[in-house]
Amino acid sequence: MIHVVSPGMLTTVQDLGREGYTHWGVSPAGAADDLALRAGNLLVGNEEGEAALEMTIVGATLQFEAAAFVAVTGADAPIDVDGDRRPPWAAFPVGLGQRLRIGTSSRGGRMYLCVAGGFVLSKTLGSVSTHAGSGLGPEPLRRGQQLILRSTAVPTVRIRRRVPVLHLEAQREFVEQGAALVRVTTGPQWGAFSDSARRSLQEETFEVREESSRMGIRLGGPVLDSPFDGEMATQGVPLGAIQVPKDGQPIILFVDAQTTGGYPVAASVISADRWRLGQLRPADKVRFRLVDIETAWLELQRQEEWLHSLRHA
Amino acid sequence: MTLEFISASDCSLLLQFTSGDRRVTQNWILRLTRRLAHLPAEGQRSISPGAGSLLVRFDPRRTSHSDIEGHLLEQLEAAGAEGEPVVQTLEIPVWYDPRVGPDFDFVQAQLGLSSNDLIELHSNQEYQVLFVGFSPGFSYLGRVSPQLRMPRKTTPRPLVPAGSVAIAADYTGIYPTASPGGWWVIGRTPIKMFDLSREPAILAGPGDQVRLRPVTEQEFLSLGGSR
After folding, report:
1. ipTM exceeding 0.90, yes/no
2. A300 touches chain B (CB under 8 A)
3. Is B135 close to A258, i.e. CB distance below 8 A?
4. Gyration radius from chain A CA atoms
5. How many CA atoms lie within 13 A of A243 on its CB side?
6. Is the pTM of this model over 0.90?
């Protein structure tokens, strides 16, 4: 069992999300940085989609009432066990009665705590992920709450895996002119946008606004002219769609977003860069680069190979 | 009837009908939706029907836009061959009253209708669930009579109770859970539109037919409704 001493700013349970119910209006939810979740699980020997704790900017402090193997991945935040520093992106043990503290992120928006064996949680429509908007999944973590670990046995195998730093940076760094570089493919209404709007999207730097959340990443900076005056016919929207409402300030529809939308979508973030969206935080700078579908798939394949290498490390 | 396939992202394909009668094309979308919900394409993650469109999200590690397009064309053909599906009509009791429909009086005044005309126009027709969006189980029922056309509110109401029956543009809908809402609320149903303890959780899914039956306050309360 784990006792929540302090939940941090916003900590929820997330797995890879609730797939397959969008035609019922159910958002997928799931880890905002899916890559960090999957890597963390592989480091502790779990299935890659096991549920973990997703912490937002400020980490949690947890008292372990049972020994466990854990890994913390995602944003750069200090980690300690009873005051002794522990490395990120690595599996390490936490003993019975010890206190694991994850501090405040210096870079990036979300940290993930994966525990070998996972947590005891019941699934709703195939997933344990919290979706704040609809109330599906468990409530965000509260002070004093207990989390039950599925495996109570002390691991006998000494898992000492960690992701080599250089390896990690090659995979996770992608910055241009001080801004996170996010690659996109054209969206369904790309052709309807003006030349100047399309140019702005590709050449200018945007800033993540304070009102951003798991529903949508709201961007400030350049204003794009919207191609439609009135309301567009409601249609299904993909995860990572860059929607442009009438005010011209783009919103990237994220994991908790509604499944349908009524604003034109200029471009959509590629699957391999989706984790970057999960690491954006208010005031971060973002730039977009248009790529073709083949490039997007090639990047995803590279990322999958990298994850695969962790599994067999 | 013309249709086109558009890449919506590196992992989704949008099928859009660009011409043809709106009723007919929506019917094709709904038939396709039902088929894909039961017979998903290899690598299909989820589907979202919309007004005149259907988005298919897929796992790009397992399939591609062209394979999904091929599957959709096959399913369209199969849907055509099987003929019109038999659809049951679901009856949903609604208490139309300003006490549970805070916009009832305003809508009535705005549209120049008597209370009875408003209720009659809203309830005396069969609706179809055109698509579900906004929140789990929020079914867009269409199309409402042109005499009931209200634009969406400019400022949404911060809290609309569960069961609220509302109109906007040419749709009517029922809020499955309490949430903010930008539609005009004219009544309330005691029926739960989305209930995880039920199988399936959704009461009226894409393609289902719905009839709204006006009920009295007593009946509303006896069916478990609360004011």
Report:
1. yes
2. yes
3. yes
4. 20
5. 27
6. yes
